[in-house]
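Feature request disguised as a bug report, sorry. It would help if multi-protein outputs had a clear separator. Right now it looks like this:
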Amino acid sequence: MARRGFAAPAQRFALLAAVQVALVLLALGYGCQMASARRVTAEQRLAAAINSTAKATRPVVVTITEDIVLTRSLPLILGPIVIKGGCGRRKCVVDGAGKYGIFQAYALPPLCSVTIENLILRNAAQGAVYSKCDLKLRRVDFTKNKGASAAAVGNGQASWHIEDCLFEKNSASGAGGALYVSAAGRGRVVRTTFRSNRAGQDGGAVYIYGQMTGSYVFDRVTLDSNAAAKSGGGLFVVGTASGAPKVFVSGCKFSKNVATGGPGGALALSASVDARICHTSIVGGRNAAKGGKGNDVALLDGNYHPQMTVSFCPRKPSGLSLFVTRVPKLPVVSQNCWVCALPR
């Protein structure tokens, strides 16, 4: 008869593995919920992967294969990571449960980069994604996130690329109901729809605090039925007094956007900005601004050097509802297709 005090080698190995997993989860603050490796949740695996970015020298790749409803805040992203959905023909869901933000990245590029693909991020409190790292979003749906912008790119040199995404029914108490950008790096939004987003200040869907070195591209973007409590029902871009960031609006469509408290129902530009509006549908889209001041476009506070410039291609649209703040140095509005080539 075998002595009870000694386990078989296989049993000892299984016990050791379970203890090691439990210790890792305890270190992350999750371990009290689970006692064995077989009971590790998708939320815990995601948290462990994020936690490992602190010492990562190459991107940590994590694939989510089932829906997740957060039960607590996820760790901060401190290094490079790729987060992908792997739910077959549908997109996996990460749900903030109306209590938590979802992904927050606070390191600095180029040491930190965040790529998120094929997911639905919804019901986040205080925003679904906040990043000071370089940010790439591909085929991500942001829905019903509240409190802060659904996606935000913070101060610093971070660049951002958003492609084939959907931002719908998000709301922010401040500016930028769906997307808020204050980073100095280049940014691009491609084939993306912003629909029914709300902001308590400027930029019902998108707010960009432009930097002198930045260029911002909106390529085949749809902005529909967004609303701002102040100006820029669809898109609001403010430049700086030290230089004019370039803003490309190419092949886009603005419809039924509303600025309930100020000018610029569809689009508002402020301070020193070099805007190129090319092959874009904006007139006749039932955009509306308070008092009819620029139902389509508003050019605000443009008394800076260099002057605000706005180029239309193929021409300034007939019937454009345009509001311009009365200042000594009025913005320069012209027809110019030479400036429409998008930067890479």
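(second protein starts here, but nothing in the output says so)
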Amino acid sequence: MRFIESILAVTLLFGYLILWKVKEIRQHAVTGINPKVMSKSTSNIQRFMDNYSKVLMVYSIAFVVIHSFNFQLYSLFTRFEVLNKPLFDLSGFFVGIIGLGFCLYAQLKMGASWRVGIDEDIKTELVMNGLYAYIRNPTYLGLFLLNSGIWLLWPTWTVFLFNVLFVLFLEIQVRCEEDFLVARHGDVYVEYKQKTKRYFPFIY
């Protein structure tokens, strides 16, 4: 089953990379705007977050290689026995696919407003309908589900730590974005923020 686990996990990861890259290329071709703006920020925090994201990228590449080839080092890469079952493999892949669905939905719904980071130069339109009428960050919800699915496929301490670091990244970044949008859009965003949740409808 470990070969199948690896195929499913890598499929999810490549699925997200394809979604992200296709959106980036198409948006740049249609609008002339490069949606990757985090590294261009004048904010110290955003530049830190850009470096943080690069560390996460290197970490993710490392654990993909390690788990795909079944390397072992103490218990860091050993699967938790209680989760090392076909049912959890299938559940993880299903959860990951749902996560990719949220990411795709957000990309399509955001249209030309979609960014990776905070765009300090171009004022983007607020999207407040559809799923955005209930949660402000479908992309982040999708990424959370995607990473949770990968952890169910590879239930090890290494992937668990990655998820902890990734959630911390999201929690910092989302607050930076909220502060920026309040400053940029004023009362319109404040009222929208009061009526919606960050990730999970009616919960958080």
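Even a blank line would do. Unrelated, but nice: The two ends are 36 Å apart (CA to CA).
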